[in-house]
Amino acid sequence: MVIMPVSATTAAAASAAPGQVITVSARTSTATTATVSAWRRDSTGTYVRVRGPLSGHVGADGVGKASESRARTPAGQWALTHSFGIKADPGTALPYFKADNKDWWDEDVHSSRYNTHQRCPPDTCPFNESRSEHLVDYPVAYQYAVIMDYNMHPVVRGAGSGFFLHVSNGKPTAGCVSVSRTDMVWLLRWLTPGQHPIVSIGVGSAAYAPVR
User: How far apart are CA 173 and CA 169, in angstroms?
Assistant: First the structure.
């Protein structure tokens, strides 16, 4: 079994001003679409938009307090430390794994591995597979994805799991943020661990708090 080693990178992200920010602004708390933009911090400390505004989707239950029982995108700011995809690495500087039949995201609230990446053949996993995501079963959305470090340090059972920035299928998500495949590839190639990238999700202007 494999647990993603995110704690060290997340600690660094929390202690440094982000050099890269992805903002996700929903018009209302119940909206299922959002405006997505990428920002970089220049030498003066000013944030400059480098891509966007883009069209994106958020959870079918909108944006706000997330949980395992709602298709809601969590409002707040989360580090972006790791990535994955069913397709080969498109050239990201983030740690990236190519998902195959053994890759899962454990979303079983009774599992000690809740809200982590795991590897095990189907029907052999030490968690409830029916309540978890078999990553290759989402061939459009998980062509490419960036993991949001939501509910990871510490993990709270039931607070929600498996929140990613991924490729859009043109519909609201189960709580993730999705953008077009072209934009997703661009974002993966742009994100740099040394810039301590974060995603900032909120309703209206709240999403832009880090870049003001």
Answer: 9
Q: How far is CA 92 from CA 1, 142, 145, 163, 175, in A?
A: 24, 15, 11, 19, 24
Residue 100 DSSP SS3: coil
What are residue 190's phi and psi, to 5 degrees? -85, -40
**What separation in angstroms does the CA of 189 have from each of 41, 93, 95, 101?**
17, 7, 12, 25
> What is the spatial distance between Cα 4 and Cα 89, in angstroms, rounded to a whole number?
17
Residue ranges of the chain whose pLDDT lies below 50: 1-15
3-state secondary structure 8-65: HHHHHHHHCCCCEEEEEEECCCCCCEEEEEEEEECCCCCEEEEEEEEEEECECCCEEC
Q: Which tokens in the block code for residue 110?
A: 């009774």
Whole-number Å distance between alpha carbons of 197 and 183: 16
Q: Which pLDDT score, from 0 to 100, does residue 13 have?
A: 38
Residue (of 208, 192, 188) closest to 200 by Cα position = 208
| pTM to 2 decimal places | 0.92
